[in-house]
């Protein structure tokens, strides 16, 4: 009789061990997205609250953008200036400008001819001792000055007449490209000051409040993506030969009646130690394989809820 009772207890204990090892445990997970401050700036608006459901592209946090707006305006003005200079060099001078330059050159030429005559006349008078050295020097200076003015105006008229060199036009075009790149960079910096949801999800944490000045790189928003919900369980090595990627598997979610059907998405190739909460004390020292199991999208379960997976 005693042997029968002892055998029954031993059988029950073995069954209990088998039941413990036939279940893998884990938690419900959602992909987490962290949004950080691009620069050192002040928060001017918190557009959402913790726990709020947000859509993709929805504004979450607005940082002070006054300096960035001013920089964009400056870059826009520089681009307009560069385009105007490039267009001017492409089209060349207007006919009225060329005609005015030609008239100025002809007038300077006439003045230079007259100054040369005056100098020759002064030379004759100096030889006849009718004027002094000072008057002769003044005539010489006037001749040289008018000749230089004539040459300068001639070069200006010639440049307008022949147009700009290809090198100058190419340089002006490059300045337009430089100004465009600077404007794009300024606009990107301005846009970065408005933090938007990269995907639809749930606002998990907002560690800062409106009016705070945050350093560059500080975490401003933590989002939990709503497009994918999955269970992350610790799969024992003995189950690797029975469970494969793409297999359908039943998952028991804590707090919900019945089971939900999941699909094995990924099994890690590198083993890890089982966490303290999974399985029993003996199994915690064993190596397990992290396994992600996609769950139906229509179940409304927060991240962190415990799950159990029945192993085949």
TrEMBL record:
Transmembrane spans: none
SUPFAM superfamilies linked: HlyD-like secretion proteins
Residue stretches making up the YbhG-like alpha-helical hairpin domain: 70-192
Record's protein name: Hemolysin D
PANTHER family associated with the record: EFFLUX SYSTEM COMPONENT YKNX-RELATED (PTHR32347), UPF0194 MEMBRANE PROTEIN YBHG (PTHR32347:SF29)
Lineage: Bacteria, Pseudomonadati, Pseudomonadota, Gammaproteobacteria, Alteromonadales
The entry's keywords: Coiled coil
Superkingdom of this protein's organism: Bacteria
Any one annotated GO CC term: cell envelope
Predominant subcellular localization, coarse grouping: other
Coiled coil (residue ranges): 169-196
Location within or outside the cell: Cell envelope
